[in-house]
Structures are given as C-alpha cells and as structure tokens.
Amino acid sequence: MFYKSQKFEPYEQLWTQASNIVDKLAMWQDGPLHAVQSETLDKDVMALWREIFKLSKKLAGSAAAGVAELLLQKLDQYKPNIPLVIALCNPGMRDRHWVKVAEIVGFELHLDEYVTTLLISIFMLIINSSMTLSRLLGMNVMQHLRELETVSENASREYGLERALQKMYAEWKDVVCCCDFFFFFAVAKH
C-alpha cells in the first residue's frame, strides 16, 4: 500500500493544479471562444488563483513556491481578458448585437438587409468555429472593450426581457378568458 505523507500533499496539489491551470489557460486562450463557460469564467479563475495562493504560502521557502508564483502570474496575466470573453460569449447576443460588434471592431456593413444577415451568419460561424481569444487580442479588439461591454449589457437586458416574456406566454397559454359584453357595458356606464 502506498503511503502518502502530509508533507508530500501540498506538492501533489500544486502539480495537479499546475496541470489544471495550464490546460485551462490553453483552452481559454487558444480554444474556440464559444467553448468557454463565460458565466463561470471569473469565478473559476479566482478559485484557481486562491488555491495556488494558499499553496504558495504552505510551500514558502521551497523551490515549488517559485512554481506557485509563476502560476499566479499566469492567472494575473489572463484576468484582464475576462471582461472581453464575458462580453462576447453572452448568451443574449443576437444578430443585431453582432452587427454592432462588427461595426465597433471595424467591419463596415452598409449593405442591404439580406447581405448583412448573410455576413452576420458568416461572422457567427467564424466566431463559433475558429475564433479564439488569442486571435481577438491579435486583432486589437481589447481597445474596444467598453463599447463591446455596452452592447453585451444591452443584449443581457433584452435577453432578460425575452425570457420573461416567454415565461409569461407559457404561463398564460392555457388560460381562457371569457368576457361578457354586458359586463363591460355596465362598467363603462358607471
């Protein structure tokens, strides 16, 4: 039976988390943007950061503490990108929002509605299949972050209204209203 000492445990946790962080950062940075779980991204990054920070304190003075510091630096370097990912991976984004995004980042779409819809479909296909955070950063999209966040916030509000409307529709679809003409006439007279 393999005996695991308590002295070894922080090192095991560090290497396990190091592997996890390297894999996640690669996926978040170079994987398809649509595969990123934007709803939990900020929490995931902060949870990893806190775990490595605790381990760095436990391992202070050892060579492994340097690895923990390097991992913290990698996570700190990624943090400024989180708002961009959250803005672009918003589930409320619709074609009209992507038109705005395209215009903000420099794609001119002064065409008729059919061609614009077609171009947005192609734009969405590119975003969903091969767009990565690395590519977006290479295109200097970060310089438009404030404007992209505004579009995303509007999309979120509209999405919330859409969902509320769908819920109301579902609740009321089986309700049958019967109105008596004489009741309305009597109420209107008084």
Could you characterize what this model shows?
It is a single chain. With 190 residues, this protein is mostly helical. It has one domain. Helices cover 71% and strands 0% of the residues. It contains nine helices and no strands. Helix 2 packs antiparallel against helix 3. The longest helix is centred in the C-terminal third of the chain and has 28 residues. The N and C termini lie far apart (90 Å). The mean pLDDT is 82.
TL;DR of this structure?
The chain has 190 residues and is an all-alpha fold.
Mean pLDDT, as a whole number? 82
Contiguous runs where pLDDT drops below 50 for at least 5 residues: none
Number of extended strands: 0
| Structural class assignment | mainly alpha
Helical coverage, percent range: over 70%
Radius of gyration: 25 Å
What order do the helices and strands follow?
A: HHHHHHHHH
* Morphology call: extended
| Residue fraction in strands | under 5%
Distance between the termini: 90 Å
Largest sheet: none
Indicate how many domains the architecture comprises: 1
- Counting DSSP H or I runs of 4 or more residues, the number of helices is 9
